[in-house]
Amino acid sequence: MQRYIALLIMVIPGVAGVIGVKLMRDVLFGILHHGFFALWFQFLAGLVLFAAGLSFVGGFIFYRDRKRNKVQNRFQRK
What we know:
Layout: H1 2-28, H2 39-67
Helix pairs in contact: 1-2
């Protein structure tokens, strides 16, 4: 059960990042979705979603690797 919860915790930010990429891609093609009043605002929302998802997943992987001593010496805790 704990593994399913951990998978869910990792999937939600990943999906948010994918939605962010989709929103930014749609701005390049001029597609405005409901709930956004301008293309620049849609791009900004997509960028925030993408950055948040990527930083969460990247931080989780970095934390896990640091705990298992699989990072370079400069990133290890002292």
